[in-house]
Design goal:
30% of the residues lie in helices and 27% in strands. The protein is an alpha+beta fold. It has one domain: 2-Layer Sandwich (Ribosomal Protein S5, domain 2), CATH 3.30.230.10. Strands 1, 2, 3, 4, 5, 6 and 8 form a seven-stranded mixed sheet that branches. Strands 9-10-7-11 form a four-stranded antiparallel sheet, with helices on one face. Helix 1 packs parallel to helix 2.
């Protein structure tokens, strides 16, 4: 009996320290400017040898047809001419359609893992370029860490690790009628009055590069102005978090998750325990994590 090769990748969630919308592109997408950061909440992606591409997920609502990992495998096959298959099994911990890049990071992990399984030897730069054909957040999530992300998401500039000790993330229970169309729905509410020049994003990126801290007053998410309209009851959840003592609460990506940086580890732990054990809310106390540095094919 031959040993089946199996590769396990951690697919890390992300938060947007800033998220600005610069304008609409000719292709229908929007140009963005964002400082993104991966955190140590992760899905587990296990990739094993198989004749065909088979994607499974422990969340039944995420079918293979809508799973971005399926698209990632197909794009990689098309770009490299590989005819091999793979079994891709995903164990979810990141909330679905919550603004933390769950589907995108699974796709990025699939690309890294398939690169190893199929012995393609692609560099992280090459994988990042491929990832733009899979989804807007996927290029950043190939490496993760701290990056300035521009364009539709394909222009990723890694920067020094942001000096943030902990994030407290709260994912409110908001009933979304169509999980897969959430981001498109959010963008459909964008109008020209929301466009900025990206100054806040570049200011924070420059501060991080220079070794400075990340005070919450530098954080910004343009979608925050739409959060209550898109997710009824969102403001109540934010106000609840602030009632604990959180000073600045920001939307994660296109929402509805929100995050704050606790003023101390002790307070962060106390708030997290209160939210999860007493109030039975879905909350995560997480650390920022550094970028993947080694070549994915090694």
């Amino acid at each position: 009996m031959t040993n089946t090769v199996s590769i396990t990748e951690k697919a890390y969630a992300k938060v947007n320290l800033t998220l600005e919308i610069l304008g609409k592109r000719r292709d229908g997408y929007h140009n963005l400017a964002s400082v993104m950061q991966t955190v140590d909440l992760f899905d587990t992606v296990v990739i094993t040898e198989s004749d065909d591409v088979l994607v499974t997920c422990d969340d039944d609502e995420i079918t293979p047809e809508i799973n971005l990992a399926t698209k990632a495998a197909q794009v990689l096959q098309q770009k490299t001419g590989v005819s091999q298959g793979a079994s891709i099994s995903i164990q979810k911990n990141i909330p679905v359609s919550a603004g933390m890049g769950g589907g995108s990071t699974d796709a990025a992990a699939a690309l890294r893992g398939l690169n190893k399984l199929w012995k393609l030897g692609l560099s992280l730069d090459e994988l990042t370029e491929l990832a733009a054909d899979v989804g807007s957040d996927v290029p950043f999530l190939i490496r993760g860490g701290t990056s300035l992300v521009q364009g539709r998401g394909e222009d990723v500039t890694p920067i020094a690790p942001a000096k943030i000790p902990k994030f407290l993330i709260l994912t409110p229970e908001i009933d979304l009628t169509n999980h897969t169309a959430k981001t498109a729905s959010v963008f459909s509410h964008v109008n020209e009055s929301m466009f900025t020049r990206g100054n806040l994003t570049h200011k924070l990126a420059a501060r991080i590069r220079a070794g400075g801290g990340c005070p919450p007053e530098f954080f910004f998410n343009q979608f925050g102005t739409l959060a209550e309209q898109l997710f009824p009851g969102w403001s109540e959840q934010r106000d609840h978090l602030m009632s604990l003592g959180a000073r600045d609460v920001m939307l994660c990506g296109a929402g509805p998750s929100m995050f704050t940086v606790p003023p101390s580890k002790e307070l962060g732990t106390a708030w997290h325990l209160l939210l999860t054990t007493v109030q039975r809310k879905q909350a995560f106390l997480v650390d920022p994590i550094p970028a993947v540095l080694s070549e994915a094919g090694s």
